[in-house]
Amino acid sequence: MPAKPPQHKPATVHRLHLRASPAQRRVIRHAAAAAGVSVNSFVLDTVCAAAYQQVAARLDIPLDDPDWDHFLGLLGQPGTSRDELQALLYEGP
Known about the structure:
Elements: H1 22-35, H2 39-59, H3 65-76, H4 83-91
Helix pairs in contact: 1-2
């Protein structure tokens, strides 16, 4: 008997419930219409863009000039051999 093809489940969708003032709703609807997208798409795209920026901002490590120069100098140095690590990678635990 032939195997049944795998059944794909639809993507899970979760609802976000937001409270907005009438003025906020109007400006969001207006901006979505100007962008030619649904309010849902506009809100999600805008919020996700802001969220990505927040996450990315936390990944930045600010360095002053002397620390930056030191960091660049370290990057320019040749790597050192890590025999134990190399053996672990090639031979396993």
